[in-house]
Write a structure and sequence with these properties.
This protein is α+β, with helices and mostly antiparallel strands. It has two helices and six strands. A two-stranded parallel ribbon has the order 1-6.
Length: 83
């Protein structure tokens, strides 16, 4: 019997501010892809670069895609989704 491949979708992601280089833990969901956030350390507003879909894809510490992109990709490939 073959196990079905799964896609893990994280509930939190560490965002790294491009200004001060400090990491901040942020809750994420598949319904919302944030276009900007204010760094709690340096108080600068961080906006999505034109080459990314959201700040999660652009500034996550592990360089992972956002939960929304992971969800869409998993559905297209027929993978089981785990949260």
């Amino acid at each position: 019997m073959t196990r079905k491949k799964t896609q893990k979708i994280p509930k939190t992601i560490i965002l790294v501010c491009p200004h001060c280089k400090k990491g901040t833990k942020a809750k994420v969901s598949i319904e919302y892809s944030p276009q900007s956030y204010i760094c709690p350390k340096c108080k600068n507003e961080v906006k999505t670069p034109i080459t990314s879909c959201c700040v999660i894809c652009a500034f996550s510490k592990t360089k992972t895609k956002c939960p929304r992109e992971l969800y869409i990709e998993a559905k297209a490939k027929g993978l089981e989704i785990k949260y």
